[in-house]
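During the second half of the funding period, the structural biology subgroup turned its attention to how the target accommodates small molecules. The most pressing case was pyridoxal-5'-phosphate, which had performed well in the primary screen but for which no bound structure existed. We therefore specified the complex as follows and requested a full 3D prediction, including the ligand pose.
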Amino acid sequence: MDYSQFKTEVSKRRRTAPTRELTKIAYSAPMELISLAEGMPNEETFPFTEISLKLIDGSSFTLEGEELGAALQYIPSQGYPPLLQALRELQRKNHAPPLWESRDIVVVSGGQDGLSKALEAIVGPGDPVLVQDPFYTGTEVVLSPHKAELIPVAQDAFGVDTALLREILKGRRAAGKKMPKIMYINPTGANPTGSVLPLERRKDIYRLACEYNFLILDDDPYHYMYFTDEAPKSFLSLDTEGRVIRLDSFSKILSSGLRLGFITAAAPLVASIEVHMQSSHLHAPTISQVIVYNLLKIWGHDRLMEHFRRIRVFYKKRRDVISALAKKHLHGLADFTIPSGGFFLWIKVRGVKDTWRMVMQRGVTHGVLLVPGAAFMADPSQPCNAIRASFAKASYEDMNSALERFAKMIRAELSTISNNNIENGEV
Ligand SMILES: Cc1ncc(COP(=O)(O)O)c(C=O)c1O
């Protein structure tokens, strides 16, 4: 596939930084090579002599000597080579991607960094982009400064409505409108709705991507956090044409403070993102990459998968608790679908057209903060009756109090709406 058809002019104009390319060469060259080329500081001047970490299962590791030196040093922009190798093995095992030899991986500073760099490689001023609606606010903030034309695709309880997507694409083509080069999708534990897109719909979307020639940006930080019986099959595992840019993040499964994620995509797209990194933060934090590499080495694949299974059990229990509490406190006031993955409960409030005003005006006085649904809509200027509640972190007691207070807040809002209606003679 010719990927230049998808790239922006800015992305095509980016050139590699010679010093960064030399770091790459120095890392892969034989030991005899003496490099005076790079501006690396001397590790002897660093004040750290040892970093020891204990893991949840009692195992531990210590970084010292040469390994500590490497962990404190500049590395090639693509990532810490031993980690890159471990991530390649992980992706092969977990997704068995077709066309594996034509793909590559780049380590980024969290999913958000990957998201913005991937989108900025593809989306230029005014370009149309398909987005699931509602969608992650972090995507909207990347796209809006580019004046991208957001094409919202509504979702039901299972995620993107693929019949609607087909209609939208058909309609645009028939009307001679500019066609989208990319679709943004967050298919598992969608933020904010908590849905998990069924396999048949994933296949439908992939077929449409091939038919209408667009790429799929699969933002999948909750991939291992599904509460369905079957593990979701990734778009990468369906990708027979090299159209999928897959974003993984360690934020939700190892630690968000590590600021690490990785992109798996066709090599020319990965190369564009790597070159962008050369002009921005050079590479994702080495120390984080070395920590994750050691963790993967000590645990191996099976223990890592066991860790993910424990996370699923942990969040599923929280999902069950918040769902029961919402049922108890919001009965008759709001509706929601039990989330199938991720961190969030998406609640639609009855009788309140715009939760933005309600949350902003009453949240602090009622002692509860939630995200108004409009924050996640492709057109945030339109009123939205939903709110997003996270069940990831609050204690069960706090969840209970929060939903109790939320119910009071809704009642107060409904009472104001009703009084206003009476004053305006609408009742
Ligand atoms: C759907 C989605 N994508 C991306 C991110 C970015 O996360 P990070 O940069 O920590 O990987 C988040 C974080 O909440 C998210 O929910």
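Two results from this model are relevant to the next phase. The domain at 308-423 is CATH 3.90.1150.10 (Aspartate Aminotransferase, domain 1). The chain is about 40% helix and 15% strand.
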